[in-house]
Amino acid sequence: MQEPAITDDLIAAHGLSPDEYARILEIIGREPSFTELGIFSAMWNEHCSYKSSKKWLRTLPTEGPQVICGPGENAGIVDIGDGQCVVFKMESHNHPSYIEPYQGAATGVGGILRDVFTMGARPIAAMNSLSFGSPDHPKTRQLVHGVVEGIGGYGNAFGVPTVGGELRFDPAYNGNCLVNAFAAGLADTDKIFYSAASGVGRPVVYLGAKTGRDGVGGATMASAEFDDTIEDKRPTVQVGDPFTEKRLMEATLELMATGAVISIQDMGAAGLTCSAVEMGDKGGLGVKLNLEAVPQREANMTAYEMMLSESQERMLMVLDPAKEAEARAVFEKWDLDFAIVGETIAEDRFLILHNGKVKADLPLAALSGTAPEYDRPWEETPVPDALDPATVPQVDPIDALRMLLASANYSSRAWVYEQYDTMVMADTVRGPGLGGGLIRVHGTEKLLAFTSDVTPRYVQANPEMGGKQAVAEAYRNLTALGATPLATTDNMNFGNPEKPVIMGQFVGAIKGISAAVSALDMPIVSGNVSLYNETDGQAILPTPTIGAVGLIAHADHAITGTARDGHVALVIGETHGHLGQSALLAEVFGRAEGDAPPVDLEAERRNGNFIRSNVELIRACTDLSDGGLAMAAFEMAEAGDVGVILDTEDTPTLFGEDQGRYLVACNFDQAEGLMIAAGQAGVTVTSVGRFCGDAVKFGATSVPLADLKETYRSSFAAIFA
Fold it and tell me: What domain range is 594 assigned to?
């Protein structure tokens, strides 16, 4: 087949700027072949090279005594004691999910699961963070259905419980939904596998499913804005098969036990290209590939297509040649492809052969180590004026709560998570719907807690404070379960970084996240950056999602109870009534005004330590976030099927979103004990009411709990079912 000529239009279609193409010419001293152009495009796009974000990502705290492996590998690894570790990461599949919702979301789940078991860990939990446009936008319903079905279809068939997540709606996502997938797995600390190749002349082995034309150019597509040609990008979306992935995981873990694996890498974004280059670059080696040996499911595939295909359920491995027969037998048993497609070489070369012809001959290190890195101009986001409380109309607090509970953003998500298998593997202690998720570490008394958090309207108003708040809320969600936060993974979803305003949002969020993870001992150990989330120049809300993992050393120390009749309601932390950028303002009055709530990291740490030090006095606990005390009290009452009486009907007190706060339910004598302990610890504790009866009562206004329950439980399905 005749390869196309390298033209300016072809270069631009590959997402390469004129300056970047000039750099390619300088590196290789000649015009690239079509396949070489595709390889550079794959390795130098935003999705794979982080060329706009590397400068700022380096400022993130990534180390701690609990950290075994930080950013740079397939996933981060944190020690949980007893020779065990948790392996976890979050990644985006935003653009593919907007183009083809089911497969985009499904392959997002598949990709993040491979990142985990590639490192020798068996996946034990999944979460997702989803952002969609306005509920009344004509595309939102289709996207919600497709994405939810894709997540459930893949995760359920693979057999991993979905234990938590988040879901939001805002017109800013009308043209660009966000699908962020999280997975965590367990491994032994002495049986971790890494991707750096080692040893010259060792076989490079292709594992898993066959290569097709699906996903060709997917990483490049994910690194560009959308426009009216969006439907033309449908062929760049991958197609997933969860049953093949399940077999691939079992085969891979069995293979690892043989000692045959020298290094191993998931074939994710940019497929064979990225996996081979990363393995070679990390090991300081070159790689030679013979593409006629690549298992193919379609006829007459070109070198370009094979190198850039993002077909799913594939891995690349460097093999101990002495154990080839044993390794091959494992994959044949699981009815998966096992093919030697190349070898490691001493020279700094990425040599691609197809049917006896050289299709690419490039300096391998240059593809990764000399990828462009930009210091994008950025504008600091001006801090908004504080909201004038006098501009917030008086509203009946019960009516306001009812409006929140009826909205797409704050009604029950049961319609969504009931489509996910939350109990498979039989170790789920607490699933979606009640804050963070809890998984039992099988065969031990330990529990792992998981949460995913960000409030984009805060980040939009004040990126640095919003970044802090995302980490702080994750910290509180873990703490409310009794868990000690261990570490975080981030998914930085933003618009076009070439716009100084957008880049300023990114920089501000990074600064806030850095300060918070440092102060709260929650280092970033893995993550993903997703930029160019724009359509026709309209950017999403800045959405730096934080996924966090915590540890409970013994199941007896977990806070998993619910409020009961006679329990006292206590607020831990100070209440000032901050209504700027609040859910009340957004959902009841349709306004996005004021500054994000301030985050006092010292207070967050102090209050969190207090909760974890007094778990024996606490029956139920939740953090106060969106909707403030009113929403938290209702959710606790709803979960316990008991009424709640709060002593006030003051709007700022009920709906203010001051940070660093928890709502606790406990018996009267336990409340006294908490008050005494709080005085000794310098922590503010306020009695705000009690749980009793069958009504929700704020001051003098009340309504039957059953009425609010009906609104809460039925509204989401009424909108989307």
Answer: 561-721
